[in-house]
Design brief:
The structure is a homodimer. By secondary structure, chain A is of the alpha+beta class. Chain A folds into two domains: 57-167, 60s Ribosomal Protein L30, Chain: A (2-Layer Sandwich); 175-342, Alpha-Beta Complex (Phosphoribosyl-aminoimidazole Synthetase, Chain A, domain 2). The first copy, chain A, has eight helices and 14 strands. In chain A, strands 9-11-8-12-10-13-14 form a seven-stranded mixed beta sheet, with helices on both faces. Chain A has a five-stranded mixed beta sheet with strand order 1-2-7-5-6, covered by helices on one side. In chain A, strand 3 (80-81) and strand 4 (84-85) form a beta hairpin. In chain A, helix 2 runs parallel beside helix 3 (120-137).
């Protein structure tokens, strides 16, 4: 028996079947194909002012109080890795998306989709990690749901977290506030999370002492706000790495961005692993790094504030938003040898399922 | 290469390995095993006042405004069924959990976990259903996330939605407000959603004209509140059906409940399908039904209000919270032939993955 067909929708699917008849891994990879999915299916279907902010979350006011609301699902493989596990990621990732809205993370929900047969001990360890990460990030897990799917219809465990945070300042942080001439700050060295996952991935495993950079970022953001930095925009660098974060902001703000590659901190071990694997660290995922767009005349002070926190010890002033809007909103990278190249979005992700 | 072992946690997993070394389907089934998972792992680990409300969502105040926050993941199979699809469920299910907190649903998040190879047209249809359901329920989808997992590591699509709603009255709706002598109202006939899913399930399919009861419930709750019914508690009846909803409230309120089976509306087709399949409709899932606990002297008026809405046309006064707290918090059912039996939780769900 086949399901009753649904009534036809008047509008046809805007992604031509001839291009992509089926969803491919790259549609979830943080690159061009994911952007196409969002821009051609989700944004036009659900169109509303909050979604069109193209922010890391939705910001709205209730009873005169600005709140942020966001969600992410976590499907990382393997479930455990040096520096964390899927539980740590699920708490920090969503709390960080709230922080990127300038919101103090308050409450998280937890939606678990467990594959039948997951060892109970594994579930227990992941839940303990979520609790430890929540305590460290200053958030509470206040509501949840558990689903179990048949063996072979899941992959151990998937975790969705959604979060609610409170915005306790008047800064309109978001892509729409980026201004020509803004300084682009990066909170630390890049690529550690992606390379860590790769080092423990079945069939790719290699020896390294690198650990994931997975960490809660609110304390860094709070320090900038508390000390009067007029933050224009924040973006954490997950799928697609620094390159994707920069491109998303350039496009949403409709402004070109110029980056100096020599100013982008990359640990020797990450650089070495990337060379062997043929990866560019600027596209590799992070889970504890963000970029901040601030007025140029506040850049040095903001950098000092970031560096005063161990999580921002390697913060760097990596580039500038172009002073004119005359060119297309592209990201250019001045390389170590002085050449300029366009830093484009990849179609997908170099390594799938890093978060 | 094996993942680096995590530091040992001081406390061992409280579910004895000898009982359940692995997660089984019933841990997600809305019955006794799911309750054990929640009570022995989630509640003690994350313990906080909001979680211990044992409500359909977390209720908290921000800037003097009471809000509700909830989440659910949807893993229903098949994805499309008479009366709806996974997208309809994902919107109504979470909006209804907000309504059960007495909150007007405002905003939803959407977290999609798509299996590589899902036809793009299927995704498009589901997203259109989410939009139609959101418009009907009066909520906006304001933030989202998309992950893609390898073919064979998912099951078409899983959807998580989380929701934020606003509480615009002073009633302390929740299990803690249930009082001895309260009337138990049921908003309509039961079992349609579960039987519908079963009728289109691979290997189980049978002919029926039954459609899922999946529907947004806020208009019913709003009518009760607007017309001055002092609602004590609300619970929508999903996994585990009416029996589970009643048991959850009885236990959380620590009060026995007595139900009159003859007052519970069940459509002939549902009753017939249940007889053939050996199911009890009282345990079969619904997606557009709830129970309301109200003061006995308001029961008739509340029933009239429910029946004035097409979604509550078959509402019924099905039972009473015991007037004394002297007995254990069990649910007793007076059957059609006048015998009393204890209506217990099942270990899991009669049919897995109905939502």
């Amino acid at each position: 028996m086949t399901p009753t067909p649904k009534p036809e929708f008047s509008q046809a699917c805007p992604i031509p079947i001839s291009d992509y008849p089926n969803v491919v891994m790259a549609h979830g990879g943080g690159g061009r194909l994911m952007q196409q999915l969002i821009e051609s299916i989700f944004v036009p279907t659900f169109k509303n002012d909050l979604l069109s902010q193209r922010h890391d979350g939705a910001v709205f006011s209730l009873a005169g109080q600005r709140l942020a609301f966001t969600t992410d699902s976590y499907v990382v493989q393997p479930l455990f890795f040096p520096g964390g596990d899927i539980g740590t990621l699920a708490v920090n990732g969503t709390a960080n998306d709230l922080a990127m809205c300038g919101a103090r993370p308050l409450y998280l929900s937890s939606g678990l989709i467990i594959e039948e047969g997951l060892p109970m001990e594994t579930l227990w360890r992941i839940v303990q990690s979520m609790k430890q990460a929540a305590d460290k990030a200053g958030v509470q897990l206040v509501t949840g749901d558990t689903k179990v799917v048949d063996k072979g219809k899941g992959d151990g465990i998937f975790i969705n977290t959604a979060g609610v945070g409170v915005i306790e300042h008047n800064l309109p942080i978001g892509p729409g506030s980026v201004r020509p001439g803004d300084a682009v700050l990066l909170s630390g060295d890049i690529g550690r999370h992606g390379i860590t996952i790769m080092s423990v991935r079945d069939g790719l495993g290699f020896e390294t002492s690198i650990e994931s950079d997975c960490a809660p970022l609110w304390s860094l953001v709070a320090a900038l706000i508390d000390q009067g930095i007029e933050i224009h925009c924040l973006r954490d660098l997950t799928r697609g790495g620094l390159a994707s974060g920069l491109n998303e902001i350039a496009q949403a703000a409709n402004l070109p961005i110029a980056i100096d590659e020599t100013a982008v901190p990359v640990r020797e071990e990450v650089r070495g692993a990337c060379e062997i694997l043929g990866f560019d660290p600027i596209y590799v995922a992070n889970e504890g790094r963000f970029i901040a767009f601030v007025p140029a005349n506040q850049a040095d002070r903001a950098l000092g504030i970031l560096r005063a926190n161990p999580l921002g010890a390697d913060a760097s002033h990596i580039g500038t938003v172009a002073a004119t809007t005359e060119t297309r909103p592209i990201v250019t990278l001045k390389s170590q040898i002085g050449a300029n190249r366009i830093l484009d979005l990849l179609s997908g992700e170099q390594l799938p399922r890093i978060c």
